[in-house]
Prior knowledge:
Helix content: 55-70%
Structural class: mainly alpha
Radius of gyration: 17 Å
Number of domains: 1
Number of strands: 2
Shape: globular
CATH class: Mainly Alpha
Amino acid sequence: MDDARFSQTLQRIDQxxxxxxxxxxxxxxxxxxxxxxxxxxxxxxxxxxxxxSEELLLAARAxxxxxxxxxxxxxxxxxxxxxxxxxxxxxxxxxxxxxILADVGYPESIRVRVRAxxxxxxxxxxxxxxxxxxxxxxxxxxLKLHTYLDEWDDEKTVDILRKTLRKMTAQxxxxxxxxxxxxxxxxxxERAAGN
Length: 195
């Protein structure tokens, strides 16, 4: 790995995500939402994988790159609309990441792999793809779940949590059970897990 190129790339990704106008509370003060989320997914990958590849680390940091530019509201509030939005996001994030990687000089082979991880190509049969999914789910539970509780009723939340847990490995589910959560989030997660 070219450490200087890797560091420059992470810095460029962070600069892009720092433009997010949405702000979240964090231990060290308010931060742009996608910057905070991407950094946490990156940290979770490092927890889950003993020796993560450069491609996996790059994908972890860039997999929600500039997400706020394609808001959920731009698609119908239907199941089909949700899936169309998620597909559009994945393609957009991969394109945004690829532009940065190309600009800093990454070869096509690495760029192809990063794009595949971001767009979740065959992720269930790909150990790195599954690790990225686990990290994304853990970061969602840790950082975002509580923000949706006023928007979703309990039944919808439990349904979403069941779908989230089905995407996760046993290791990630165990880690999810150890996350510091408020009582309501924890109770809903336990319901979703069947406890």
